[in-house]
Design goal:
The termini are close together. The protein is mainly alpha-helical. The chain contains 15 helices and no strands. The protein is globular and about 55 Å long. Helix 3 packs parallel to helix 5.
């Protein structure tokens, strides 16, 4: 067993660090959600149907997933700060390219470039949290970042709708340019390096491949990563289907995406707040169980409503998602910290593999599953419920293993081990 390096001293307050890391995590969701209201306008200009427009999400997510396995190890090798600054620079340039695109192919190319760079905020940010804090303090900071991060999907489509009200769709990408530039300057001026040179690992391809294989074949990682990925997938199915759900099913217009996103993200922010306040007071395993129970109730309410009515309407069609998001926010910090604690010297790699697992699933949902079932509400509920059941099954499996191995100390955390 290899001990983790001691946490570095910080030249930035925890509150300011939470604000910065939350902002860095936001520019990924902003890349997806701000353009949802512009789908009809972009499709009309480029002669693209709904299925073709859905690929602007799939291409982004595939590139995000592919690069996610690089962000973490790269930050383990050269430091967190450099990787974040580099990612922000590339993302800014890619957003300029999207704004200047004159056909769908060009737009997809720059969307892929956005995906290649946007993961640094979320993936490397998780490693930063675990670099500087441990135990309940890390859970509290993770929850604070989740609260800030959770605002992005709610406000992004609303901002996109407002921008469309006074300008054309390229202005949305110019907004992303401005947002990423602000983050770039803020990061440059305030974020310290939390991964000192003496703790870094050389990025040797053979060693990196060996490390990734060891992570992937670790049964504990498989259980935790699957629980996290499928749990969020139950909500992501609706997020990726938002254009069809809001415009075609709920019969709202491009400026009314807030009816879908605000309740959902309110639940996520509230769940993150409760998770942070519960740190050190409520056991991790119990908190996760409460989270899954909330999501299960949400699925039953959603199913009941869609069986009762043939014409879903706000707010009743979206309120169950608020409860589901609340449950997910209770589960996420516990499972993520458990994964990071497994590999104290390879936190970047562990964060990358967790993100990769979730992103591959999300890309398949957005590119294949969502276009097929997004107009059929009962199918949506059924598939989301199946995702939740799979996530809960993996979590229960992990909890049984932990209790068997450590019967005197039932816990949701994972004993530290290194590759």
């Amino acid at each position: 067993m290899t001990a983790a390096a001691p946490a570095p001293s910080l030249s930035i307050s925890i509150r300011l660090l939470a604000l910065l890391l939350g902002g860095l995590a936001m520019f990924g969701p902003f890349s997806i959600d701000t353009i949802f209201p512009a789908f009809p306008a972009i499709g009309t200009q480029f002669g693209a149907d709904k299925l073709a427009m859905q690929q602007t999400i799939s291409v982004y997510l595939i590139a995000y997933a592919a690069m996610s396995i690089v962000h973490g190890p790269l930050s383990d090798a050269i430091g967190r700060r450099r990787v974040i600054l580099g990612g922000l620079t590339v993302f800014t340039a890619a957003s300029v390219g999207c704004a200047l695109s004159t056909d769908l192919t060009t737009l997809l190319v720059f969307r892929a470039l956005q995906g290649l760079s946007s993961g640094v905020g979320l993936i490397v940010g998780r490693a930063v949290i675990r670099d500087v804090l441990h135990g309940h303090d890390a859970q509290r900071l993770m929850s604070q970042v989740s609260m800030i991060f959770g605002v992005a999907p709610a406000v992004a489509p609303v901002i996109g709708g407002w921008i469309l009200g006074w300008s054309h769709w390229p202005a949305i990408f110019w907004f992303l340019v401005a947002f990423s530039l602000v983050l770039l300057v803020f990061t440059w001026r305030t974020l310290p390096e939390t991964h000192p040179p003496q703790a870094r690992l050389p990025m040797v391809p053979r060693r990196l491949l060996r490390d990734y294989i060891a992570i992937v074949i670790n049964p504990r990682f498989q259980r935790l990563a699957a629980a996290s990925a499928f749990n969020f997938a139950a909500l992501w199915l609706y997020i990726s289907s938002a254009p069809a759900f809001v415009l075609d099913v709920l019969k709202l217009d491009e400026r009314q995406f807030g009816w879908f996103f605000v309740p959902m993200i309110s639940g996520m922010v509230l769940g993150a707040f409760v998770s942070g306040r519960a740190a050190g007071k409520v056991g991790g395993e119990r908190l996760v169980s409460i989270g899954f129970a909330c999501s299960a109730v949400a699925m039953l309410l959603n199913l009941g409503y869609n069986l009762w009515t043939d014409t879903p309407q706000v707010p009743w069609a979206v309120l169950p998602m608020m409860l589901n998001a609340f449950g997910i926010a209770l589960v996420f910090p516990i499972v993520t910290l458990a994964i990071l604690d497994m590999y104290p010297r390879q936190r970047g790699s562990a964060s990358s593999m967790q993100a990769f697992t979730s992103l591959v699933l999300n890309a398949l949902i957005a590119g294949v599953l969502s276009p097929w079932i997004s107009d059929h509400m009962l199918w949506m509920v059924g598939v989301a419920s199946a995702f939740l059941l799979v996530a809960w099954s993996f979590w229960r499996w992990e909890a049984r293993v932990v209790r068997t191995q450590c019967p005197a100390e039932p816990s949701a955390t994972v004993p530290e081990e290194s590759l």
